[in-house]
Amino acid sequence: MEWERRWSYELRWQPHYRGNGVRTREVATVAQLRAVVEWARRNPNVLRCSYKPTDHLVGDQVKKCPNGHSLEAPNPNQPYRMIQQMRMVRCATCPGHYRTVCPTCRAPVFDPALSVECRPA
Fold first, then answer.
1. Residue 88, C-beta contacts closer than 8 angstroms, at least 6 positions apart
2. Which of 54, 59, 110, 121 has a CA that sits 20 to 30 A from residue 92's CA?
């Protein structure tokens, strides 16, 4: 998996203009966000335009440790089911990482993988 940056925006306009007066959407690029903001500035019916960055995990979850062992272990409550115990840990430079420990070799595994500048808590 990896983090993908997106942008959420909210437009508030005069109630008579369109529906309930609020529109909340998400765009994938800064160029798309810029187009929305420029449109909102030109439109006299828009009362407020706000936006914020949002991060989403995309891709497949890690299934094996670096030594090739499966990260799934029997569920303590339902031993016939296999689960992967993951815990979100904060990071100083990115939104965070899921951390698990290999049930076979006890190696720590982070998903998304740690980069050079990552410092998880």
1. 96, 97, 98, 99
2. 59
- What is the rounded average pLDDT of the residues 1-18? 86
Q: Kindly state the tokens that stand for 58.
A: 């995309």
Q: How confident is the model at residue 18 (pLDDT cuts 50, 70, 90)?
A: low
Per residue in 24-64, pLDDT (tens digit) is: 999 999 999 999 999 999 999 899 999 999 998 888 888 88
Q: Answer left, alpha or beta for residue 50, where phi above 0 means left and psi between -120 and 50 means alpha.
A: beta
Please give the structure tokens belonging to residue 95.
């939104």
Are 33 and 9 in contact, with CB atoms under 8 Å apart? Answer: yes
SS3 string, the chain, reads CEEEEEEEEEEEECCCCCCCCEEEEEECCHHHHHHHHHHHHHCCCEEEEEEEEEEEEECCCCCECCCCCECCEECCCCCCCEECCCEEECECCCCCEEEEECCCCCCEEEECCCCCCCCEC
